[in-house]
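*** Residues and shapes ***
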Amino acid sequence: MLPQESIEEFKGLYEKRYGVHLSDAQACERANNLFKLYKITYMGEPSIDDLGENLVNNHEYQSNKN
């Protein structure tokens, strides 16, 4: 989740570009969606193997905490 300062900056840029005032909730959703799209485009979408490995590692970590 993006910090509030980034959300406010996004709101200002969006209103300047499109002439539409966004609520905090709308700006938060749109800014985070844009950031996720950028991350996937720039870094690539994680593969199923990576997701599976993360799930296994997380499960092992949770099991070891108990």
In short: Helices lie at 4-18, 24-43, 48-65. Residues 4-65 form one domain. The radius of gyration is 17 Å. The chain has a mean pLDDT of 83.
